[in-house]
Design goal:
The protein is built from twelve helices and 16 strands. It is an alpha/beta fold. The protein is elongated and about 130 Å long.
Length: 408
């Protein structure tokens, strides 16, 4: 455009407002392109919540406008603008939380029974920390467990814990019908074939039972130690034998007295069995079943120096003057393992036999009672035994049969 033409159009442009500024139009287009690109995945998002600065350069945009002056005899002029605009924006994208994993647990006895409480506590922890939805039913007889399992499957549960030895045959059979459901069977035989969608777990806490036995062997005054247990089945026998082995490890003179009450939950029967052992001279009792502490407390009130050990969960607070320590089954690492595996999509069955090194078997002192009745040299010896188990120097024996003659 020559100089004269520029002078002619300058007053015309001054008096006419363009309907859209070209640069504003391009910026709007670029921002829309940025958002669409981000949502569509053209821009790779960073981890949730991490701010990301993204620069988008819009393609050149041509804006054409025809301008006519209002004066008589004025000329009509077409003006073309070509604009390239770059837009930079910082955004934070927070994806929605993952869907809650629904887990159902079936218990054969009341929830307060220690075997149940160990898993219940771990599931409640997982609700708070692993974004799961936990439901359970208690006191389900072996004859009724198939109905309950099928009901949970029909409701869409993909992870089911039948938490009892007595359920294992039903679990093995039903798991074959529902290969897309993960069954976590709480105890069962290890010498049978399990479907690939079944994880067999058990309280492989014999390492901690060995430690409790060592405490009993070092502290007994009568050289008689006792165990009150449920049934003489493999998982229980592992603990009974490990407790005796620990006592014998530090005191070969100890004599074990073992009573099986033939019940998973009968506190009164366990109490009566413990009273009979105390009357026979036992002064250290491993309470594999619930109900022992009351008998020990009564013996203490009668002037006897008798103590007990809790089992599966930390029972130190249930009877703080009675329980020297507890053989603890911490199932939080296992529940996390299951949840992580299911969410990864790589589900694999098998037998879980973790121990102290994996963090689910622990001996937990009752610190207050320990300070009153455990000499420092005994405490140091126990620390040494724990260290030797962790390092592999001490290998705790695993005996799944109950043979009293083994310990004579």
């Amino acid at each position: 455009m020559n100089l004269g033409l520029k002078r002619y159009f300058r007053p015309i442009f001054r008096g006419i407002a363009l309907p859209v500024r070209p640069t504003a139009l391009v910026i709007g287009v670029a921002i829309i392109a940025l958002v669409i690109g981000y949502v569509a995945g053209y821009v790779t998002p960073r981890p949730a919540g991490a701010p990301q600065t993204v620069t988008v350069t819009a393609p050149p945009t041509t804006v054409t406008q025809t301008v006519t002056a209002g004066a008589p005899g004025a000329k009509t002029v077409t003006v073309t603008h070509t604009v390239t605009q770059t837009v930079t924006s910082t955004v934070s994208i927070t994806p929605p939380p993952p869907k809650k994993l629904r887990i159902a647990v079936i218990y054969v006895t009341p929830i307060e029974e220690p075997w149940n409480m160990a898993l219940h506590q771990a599931m409640k922890w997982a609700e708070e920390n692993l974004n799961i939805e936990y439901t359970y039913v208690e006191k389900v007889h072996e004859a009724d467990v198939e109905r309950v399992i099928r009901q949970y499957v029909a409701e869409g549960y993909k992870v089911i814990f039948p938490h009892s030895w007595g359920y294992n045959e039903v679990t093995r059979r039903i798991a074959k019908e529902f290969p897309d459901v993960l069954f976590c069977q709480g105890s069962g035989p290890v010498n049978v074939e399990w479907p690939p969608n079944v994880i067999l777990y058990d309280y492989w806490i014999q390492d901690a039972a060995f430690v409790a036995g060592a405490v009993a062997g070092l502290l007994t005054k009568t050289n008689k130690i006792g165990v009150i247990a449920g049934y003489a089945v493999p998982d229980v026998n592992r603990l009974v034998n490990a407790f005796i082995a620990g006592a014998k490890h530090v005191n070969p003179k100890v004599e074990p007295v073992v009573t099986f009450i033939e019940s998973w939950f009968d506190p009164e029967k366990a109490k009566e069995a413990a009273k009979a052992q105390i009357d026979a001279g036992v002064d250290m009792i491993y309470a594999e079943r619930y109900g022992v502490f009351e008998a020990v407390k009564e013996a203490q009130e009668a002037g006897k120096k008798v103590y007990a050990f809790g089992n599966i969960v930390n029972q130190n607070d249930l009877a703080p003057n009675v329980v020297l320590g507890s053989v603890v089954w911490d199932l939080r690492p296992f529940v996390k393992y299951v949840v992580d595996m299911v969410r990864s999509g790589k589900v694999k069955g098998g037998i879980i036999s973790w121990g102290m090194k994996e963090g689910w078997a622990k001996f937990v002192w009752n610190d207050e009672l320990k300070s009153e009745v455990v000499p420092p040299d005994v405490a140091s010896k126990i620390d040494e035994i724990v260290s030797d188990i962790m390092s592999g120097k001490i290998k705790v024996p695993i005996y799944e049969e109950w043979k009293p003659e083994r310990w004579k």
